[in-house]
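Dear Dr. K.,

Following up on our conversation at the group meeting, I've run the structure prediction for Glycogen synthase from Candidatus Rhodoblastus alkanivorans. I'm pasting the input sequence below exactly as I used it, so you can double-check it against your construct before we proceed with anything downstream. Let me know if the numbering doesn't match what you have in your notebook.
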Amino acid sequence: MKSVTALSVAPEIYPLIKTGGLADVAGALPGALAAEHVALRTLCPGYRPVLAALKKAEAVAHFDDLFGGPARLLAARAAGLDLFALDAPHLYDRDGGPYGGHDGRDFPDNALRFAALAKVGALLGQGLVEGFAPQVVHAHDWQAGLTAAYLHYSGKPRPGAVMTAHNLAFQGQFPAEIFGALGLPPQAFSIEGVEYYGGVGFLKAGLQLSDRITTVSPTYAQEIQQGHSGMGLDGLLRARAEQLAGVLNGIDVEVWNPETDPMIVAPFTRKKIAARAENKKALQARMGLAHAPDRLLVGVVSRLSWQKGLDLLLACLPFFEEHNAQLVLLGTGDPALEAAFQEAAQLHPGRIGVHFSYDERLAHLIQAGADAILIPSRFEPCGLTQLCAMRYGAVPVAARVGGLADTIIDANEMALQAKCATGLQFAPVTAEALAGALRRCAALHARKTAWKNIQFNGLKTDVSWTNPARHYAEIYREVAPA
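The predicted structure tokens came back this morning:
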């Protein structure tokens, strides 16, 4: 098997900096690909948390003026990852998150911040650092989308380029006026290059100019070639359908392991699933719910947004009273949704508990203690929540879209008879269909043997990176220059 050296260009990477599933993917792929004889190093921005995690870093390149200020490229190892960190204080040393301030607004210079990341990614791909010559550069989401453009218009031999779109809803669109600051040649501002509806499209550039395109599930790869899900890029994706593949995400089964997880109260296995009840008890206590071992406890771990369909759940809150069920919700996002769920919790003390923040420990406890995990997304490229749920014996109840459709076997009567169901799905994505799915969930929860079979099926499902890594390695070998 041919070995491959590759560079990943990612705007976030777990466990150093995370806002969503992209970070989990970027953090898990290097280890998973090692088994496929792929050596993958990752370039990420030098945010404060990233630099703080680097114990021993070597400056391997310097830039006198990188989009408005001096910068240096650091090589280091942290959290088991081989990293390049772009230390550019004028771009990344600031309060807030990776993409915006505490006020929730994007940083006004995001175009330059992530053009810098892409530019250095391209330079690394073409031999910037002695002794590192990647055959493949793998760019993640719009923030790394210009990497392929810098490679394409360099006029020099280049490595193979792979672009992964984790969520087509975030495209990195900027006005045409920014083009002059990007350092690209004039011909790049065309429909065959970075031009997108009269402006500059970072994601569009990556999709247009990379050798291969991947997204994070086969169903999502088909959905985004259609007008209602393509978000303006469906024509381009149809034109490049031969270069487009859907590769399901996995999860890190060492981090998400109910047998050894230090973040839960009571570790458990499939053979000792009864111990799971202690986590439910602890979760109820943590979220201010009544201790009720036999009540259906539904968990939500999600960004609060229209995409995630949490407004539909608000319309279904009467279900929890009618079926004597409980709800716990962990997430942050839309202030209006936060306010509505806070009001619901106040109106239903002991039945509904909410926590508005990012809390990894509580997320693990919800997966380990809830009976079911609800994912009513209007669209979902892949989703990791349902994979974690199955790994922890929580039954996913999810919309039949994107990666949710690819990863859950619905508990219809034939699947129950064949004992192969791993969760419940519903469609269309409406409040009425969600209410029906919750009623199905309550009825199944009352059928103890059937419910336990669904739990066991989830617990034994391979949700690791083993198969996805094999697919990525195949793609890398296809695009790597001879």
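Two things stood out to me. The radius of gyration is 23 Å. Residues 110-125 form the longest helix (16 residues).

Best regards,
J.T.
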